[in-house]
Amino acid sequence: METNTPETVHLNNSKLFKIDNFLTEACCDFLLDVIAESSCNFIDRSVTSVNIGLDGSHGRYDSMLLCVETFPGVWEKFFSNRSINGIPLDSVMVNRYYSGDFIPKHRDKQGSIFTVCVPLQTSQDSLIFIDDDEQQTVCKDIKGTGYGFFGNKPIHYVPPVQQSVRYSLVCLYGPNTY
Ligand SMILES: O=C(O)CCC(=O)C(=O)O
Ligand SMILES: [Fe+2]
Questions:
Q1: What is the pLDDT of residues 28-56, one digit of tens each?
Q2: Among 160, 33, 25, 50, CA closest to 97
Q3: Lining residues, ligand 1, CB within 6 Å
Q4: Which of 130, 138, 156, 171 is the best mutation target for the ligand 1 pocket, counting ligand atoms within 8 Å of the beta carbon and taking the most?
Q5: pTM over 0.70
Q6: Which pLDDT tens digits describe the chain residue by residue (178 residues)?
């Protein structure tokens, strides 16, 4: 984000929140170019650092770490000095899903305080949250919109992706243990 301004969110009961224009379209396009040039940095999450589902199943997607150490210029331009409710942005995982890739229903394992997921394209694909009453909140992919949650309790999943490729950022606020 060009302005690098801190952000404030108000938590509802389900601890989910939405941030419109978390990243501008131009920023998403810039990041898509960076990602296209960094293809060799992605790891296969079906075999390494597997995001194991509640039922023990494995998802299928790739990811790449974007942080001050790995991409200092990009970090400085778009991510440094960002915070939510005073908690600083620590690092960003870039997720890549090819058609049919998915993440099963899971709770995140990392210990971040806030997590904001940001699709880098608009499409029919989505991120879905499930609350304690089995109610689903479908977050359709809207380029640059942030879908956030507090803590690592919310159950969520990415249904099999329909696009030929889907990119999303997983922005982690607060000290992390991956
Ligand atoms: O790609 C997304 O929208 C969500 C990713 C996710 O839940 C995760 O990486 O744990
Ligand atoms: Fe997750």
A1: 999 999 999 999 999 999 999 898 999 99
A2: 160
A3: 51, 95, 103, 108, 117, 127, 156, 158, 168, 170
A4: 156
A5: yes
A6: 445 566 889 887 778 999 999 999 999 999 999 999 999 999 999 999 898 999 999 999 999 999 999 999 999 999 998 999 999 999 999 999 999 999 999 999 878 999 999 999 999 999 999 998 899 999 999 999 999 999 988 999 999 999 999 999 999 999 875 5
Please tell me the number of the ligand nearest to residue 126's CA. Answer: 1
* Domain locations along the chain: 16-170
Q: Are strands 114-119 and 16-19 parallel, antiparallel or unpaired?
A: unpaired
Choose the CATH number for 16-170 among 3.30.1360.40, 2.60.40.1880, 3.90.1580.10, 2.60.120.620: 2.60.120.620
Gap from CA of 170 to ligand 1 centroid (Å) = 6
DSSP string, 41-105: G-EETTTSS----TTS---B-EEEEESTTT-HHHIIIIITT-EETTEEEEEEEEEEEETT-BEEE
